[in-house]
Amino acid sequence: MTTTAQHLQSTTTLRNDVKMPWLGLGVFQVEEGDTLIEAIKSAIKFGYRSIDTAAVYGNEQGVGQAIREAIAETGIDRSELFITSKVWNADLGYEETLAAFDVTMEKLGLDYLDLYLIHWPKAGKYKAAWRALETLYKQGRLKAIGVSNFHVHHLEDVMADAEIIPMVDQVEYHPHLSQLALREFCAANGIQLEAWSPLKQGQLLNEPTIAKLADKYGKSVSQIIIRWDLQNGVVTIPKSVKPHRIAENGSVFDFALSDEDMALLNSLNRDERVGPDPDNFNF
């Protein structure tokens, strides 16, 4: 099984022809401050072009500062970067989401966002929020719009009367939660699946089967999992603040997993989550 991801700047093409990097840096639970800024700058200097944040992470201001500093220090153009943020549950609704987006943009200090996601499918709220995302997209303030943590039935609900079909669905995805039905639905409908918590918040680092594959390929467990993501056609955003780990996570383009080993990793699925089930998360 192969992937179009050949290097760290390789992209997948979303349904509206926007190019989205296959691999990015997530900054979940990274507090504002020097650690956050240095992690993002380290990632960009290493070659990452995608940074994923969210309003609820409380670090959009630092992300924006890091992006500006990285641009100044490396000379790369803003257009080369792919920046994602998400609207939180408390701000779902048409007017509320429009207002929340303005706050996000003020904190980031950016003229536009590459991808904006509805963070969770809060019952009774997400369809109005989706209309807001469609408005922002048509205004040119967003290059792409999507959702996060949406099951198939949530996607079907949005798509039933949406003007624009979601371009991305970012979900918990790792060998213990391979979400095959969702992946097949997204593929059939031109929705790019994206993985958060690809290492199951570190719980997979001691998985014996993956450890054996790491030994076989001369790679780390995290590299094996990230490569599995890519070969399954899933964009992934591993989180780290350590420059050596950021570099390691980005060094997955010099090997390929065999079909047999992909099947072995696929067989590890337990439908087991480390985060909440979207059907039962209404905060």
UniProtKB/TrEMBL annotation:
<keyword id="KW-0560">Oxidoreductase</keyword>
<dbReference type="InterPro" id="IPR044500">
    <property type="entry name" value="AKR5G"/>
</dbReference>
<feature type="active site" description="Proton donor">
    <location>
        <position position="57"/>
    </location>
</feature>
<feature type="binding site">
    <location>
        <position position="119"/>
    </location>
    <ligand>
        <name>substrate</name>
    </ligand>
</feature>
<feature type="domain" description="NADP-dependent oxidoreductase">
    <location>
        <begin position="24"/>
        <end position="269"/>
    </location>
</feature>
<dbReference type="Pfam" id="PF00248">
    <property type="entry name" value="Aldo_ket_red"/>
</dbReference>
<dbReference type="InterPro" id="IPR020471">
    <property type="entry name" value="AKR"/>
</dbReference>
<keyword id="KW-0521">NADP</keyword>
<dbReference type="GO" id="GO:0016616">
    <property type="term" value="F:oxidoreductase activity, acting on the CH-OH group of donors, NAD or NADP as acceptor"/>
</dbReference>
<dbReference type="InterPro" id="IPR023210">
    <property type="entry name" value="NADP_OxRdtase_dom"/>
</dbReference>
<dbReference type="InterPro" id="IPR018170">
    <property type="entry name" value="Aldo/ket_reductase_CS"/>
</dbReference>
<feature type="site" description="Lowers pKa of active site Tyr">
    <location>
        <position position="86"/>
    </location>
</feature>
<comment type="similarity">
    <text>Belongs to the aldo/keto reductase family.</text>
</comment>
<protein>
    <submittedName>
        <fullName>Diketogulonate reductase-like aldo/keto reductase</fullName>
    </submittedName>
</protein>
<dbReference type="InterPro" id="IPR036812">
    <property type="entry name" value="NAD(P)_OxRdtase_dom_sf"/>
</dbReference>
